[in-house]
Specification:
The protein is built from twelve helices and no strands. By secondary structure, it is mostly helical. The chain has a domain of 100 residues: Death Domain, Fas (Orthogonal Bundle), CATH 1.10.533. 13% of the residues are buried.
Length: 183
């Protein structure tokens, strides 16, 4: 982690997401949870607002590198907790992901598009499904107006069957033909 922190230091100091508030939260976490890593006096120095944030961050990273492996590990842990987007975009993290599975990084952008059936969303699907169920209910449960409904819905069912899969087409055409035979 010490070597990793050295490699990531330039990225962290130049990343605009590493603002005063985030650096302050990281210093406070290291000071409160791990006082052996950052004592109060050191934490006060790294929280001094009269010094620019980038300078304080650079000094903090040098200090953590000097403190050793555990300090570096806890800094990364705090960064992961407080700014996961920054943590996941660190050069060493990106490199680790690429080395772990080079094919996966190329397929990540393709997978979400592969499973999109249409761009209209679930409300469109539910409204179409409800409409078809309503027509089917009118067709089969029409009661006395069954013959009137056959005349109105029979051609609709016959025409809409052409848009369904082959197996479903046979079912709807058969139902429409059975209704016509009973006349």
């Amino acid at each position: 982690k010490e070597l990793q922190l050295q490699r990531d230091a330039q990225f962290l100091c130049s990343d605009p997401r590493m603002d005063t508030e985030l650096v302050d939260r990281l210093v406070l976490q290291l000071n409160r949870i791990y006082p052996q890593i950052l004592i109060d006096k050191e934490a006060h120095k790294f929280r001094n607002l009269s010094i620019p944030t980038k300078v304080r961050l650079a000094e903090l990273l040098k200090h953590l590198h000097w403190k050793g492996e555990e300090a570096c590990h806890e800094f990364y842990r705090g960064l992961h907790i407080h700014a996961e987007d920054v943590y996941s975009s660190l050069p060493t993290r990106v490199r680790q992901r690429e080395m772990a599975d080079p094919k996966q990084t190329k397929n990540v952008a393709v997978l979400p598009e592969r499973f999109v059936l249409n761009d209209r969303g679930p409300v469109f699907f539910l409204s179409c499904f409800s409409f078809v169920v309503g027509i089917a209910m009118l067709y089969y449960c029409g009661g006395e107006s069954h013959r009137v409904m056959e005349k109105c819905t029979g051609p609709f069912l016959h025409c809409s069957a052409a848009r369904l899969s082959k197996g479903a087409k046979d079912v709807f055409i058969t139902c429409a033909e059975v209704g016509k035979e009973n006349k």
